[in-house]
Sequence to fold (298 residues):
Amino acid sequence: MEQEETVQFFMEKGLCESARSGQHNFINKVARILEDSAFRVEFCDIRSQNNADSTARTLTHMKASLSQKGLMFRRVYHYPFWQIDRSDKRWEWDVAKATFNPTQIDEKEANRFYNFWRKRMFENTMPTEDEGFIYVPLQGKLLDHRSFQSCSPIQMIDRTLATFPDRKVITTLHPKETYSRQELDAVERLEHTYPNLELRMGQMDALLDRCAFVVTQNSSAAFNGYFFGKPAVLFGKIDFHHIAIDGMTVEDFDQIEAHQPDYARYIYWFWQEQSINAGHPMAERKIKNRFKKYGWIK
Fold:
């Protein structure tokens, strides 16, 4: 009898425990599909992946797989939406390379989907009037110009302030990031240079609701801003770029103010069509299609 090939899931401790107890909807669906395709499944601590066979089939949570046959899986910003892809870089995912055509999306179904998820995720946010300021959520490495960015985050803030001298700009530090003294000094220098700049910590939901638009490298705050009908200006590569504006091409506020894409159709396309909704009846078929694409199952 032919020996079963093993697929190792490399995950953080909490995910491992949840999967082993059968409590993780998405991971357990993926595991059942692999087992039905004659694979043996193991749930492993992500810290042990350095010891994995470089030719084995692996599924690694969020991080790049060290195996030649490995794949990565990651939540698509909010539960229960997931993606399985080769790369751990979101801007290299299939959805990032796909073409969004709003005319192919049913408007009524898109609006129903969009309104349902907006209420579910942001029901505690009280609608308020647009106050006209620019919201700039920061991530990490403020002084670095990395390969997926068109400039460093500090340069992004400077360009935004120079482009919109008459607009209040609120930039926020990420509560889970640790910033160096040099990074904080750079932000403080901008505060002294531009009186219209205000620095805060967090407060994403409230700022999204009240801002005119979002400027960021590739923060998920810009994706969340779509649920508030807020245009996004991106200075970095990401998977949800299709309806955003390239930050390096922005010349005046009118260009952004006039930018009103169909957010409902986009969210439906991005989540319901291009991602795996683990709570939807089509989830298993979509998971199988991802494995078929990579030659894991027939």
